[in-house]
Amino acid sequence: MSEIAHYQNVGLLAYSPLAFGYLTGKFRHGARPANARVTLFSRFSRYSNPESEWATEQYAQLAEKHSLTLTQLALAFIKQQFFVTSTIIGATNLDQLKENIQAFDIDLSPEILQEIEDIHRQQPNPAP
């Protein structure tokens, strides 16, 4: 659908590009912050399965390898998708907002994009 939308001049939004906060790293290694949406509301369980946890950890290690935060990696990746015309971000505090905005100044190298693709091939649908 993304290619069709692009060629028909229909913009696509990246909804929840940080996966309810999972792609910020705050839930790594079983952490469950008390005030997080996914902790407060059980219906937000989409990203809390073993496949998502594995993929998140792989992406986090990739980000660290390239001196990026997981948030920067996720948002920079979304920005570089030709079919995405805008991204819905959310931040609880000013530091998060700054990091989110600054991520859009990052261009991921072809090497990093390939490494993302390699992880994706191993787990193409971690959060159905």
Structure description:
The chain has helices at 2-7, 37-40, 50-65, 70-79, 94-103, 110-122; strands spanning 12-14, 84-87. It has 128 residues and is mostly helical. The chain has a two-stranded parallel sheet. It is globular and about 45 Å long. The two termini are 17 Å apart. The mean pLDDT is 92.
Provide the descriptors you would attach to this structure in a database record:
128 residues; mainly alpha; two-stranded parallel ribbon; 6 helices
Q: How many helices in DSSP terms?
A: 6
Beta fraction: 5-15%
Structural class, from helix and strand content? mainly alpha
> What's the total count of β strands?
2
Major β-sheet profile: 2 strands, parallel
Mean pLDDT, rounded to whole units? 92
Helix coverage percent:
40-55%
Strand order across the biggest sheet? 1-2
SSE ordering: HEHHHEHH
Q: In angstroms, what separates the terminal alpha carbons? A: 17 Å
Give Rg in angstroms.
15 Å
Overall body shape: globular
Low-confidence stretches: none
